[in-house]
Amino acid sequence: MKQHWFDAHGKRMPARPLLFLSLLLLLAACARVPSPKALTGDALRIENPIGRPATVGQNSAAYFTIVNPTGTDDRLLSATSQVAMVTEVHETQNDNGVMRMIHQAHGVAVPARSSVDFVPGGKHVMLMDLRQALAAGQSFTLTLSFANAGTMAVTIPVMNQ
Ligand SMILES: [Cu+2]
């Protein structure tokens, strides 16, 4: 009886942790690396846009992923919005331990068949000196100009992160 119990569990026990581990690895992979599937489609697009809440006169930022499934290299040239006095494409860089935001005056390259993440602590669109408050639940329009894809109006939902 004891032998039977051992065999039954000996077969089943390793299967579940392995399945669980596989699922975890799959989730981790999905979260970090865009799957090839995400690069399907025939036109450059913006995914997962988010704007940070802020009051009038303050700065806000917009984050998103630019997906370029096409065979043509592209470049985000500039961003504009009515909600801010100045809108710029920035990248936060670590300068000997000091985090600095660098204005990307020449824009941001979006190579063919790739995606570029705009995230807190990295590339972002900076909305400086807001003309209006941005509260969670609202949304605003951000206009992005690309060298190849042209001008694109993107609705940015404001969310607490
Ligand atoms: Cu910035």
Write structural notes for this entry.
With 161 residues, the chain is an alpha+beta fold. The protein folds into 2 domains: 2-33; 39-157, Immunoglobulin-like (Sandwich). Helices cover 18% and strands 45% of the residues. It is built from 2 helices and 10 strands. Strands 1, 2, 4, 5, 7 and 8 form a 6-stranded antiparallel β-sheet that branches. It has a 4-stranded antiparallel β-sheet with strand order 6-3-9-10, with no helix packed on it. The N and C termini lie far apart (56 Å). Copper (II) ion (CU) binds next to strand 8. Copper (II) ion binds next to strand 8.
Q: Alpha-carbon distance between the termini?
A: 56 Å
**The first-level CATH class name of the largest domain:** Mainly Beta
**Percent of residues in helical segments?**
10-25%
What is the domain total for the residues? 2
Q: Provide a count of the helices.
A: 2
Average of the residue pLDDT scores: 86
CATH topology of the largest domain: Immunoglobulin-like
* CATH H-level homologous superfamily name of the largest domain: PCu(A)C copper chaperone
* Overall outline: globular
What's the total count of β strands?
A: 10
> How many strands, which pairing sense, and closed or not: the largest β-sheet?
6 strands, antiparallel
Kindly estimate the percentage of residues that lie in beta strands according to DSSP.
Answer: over 45%
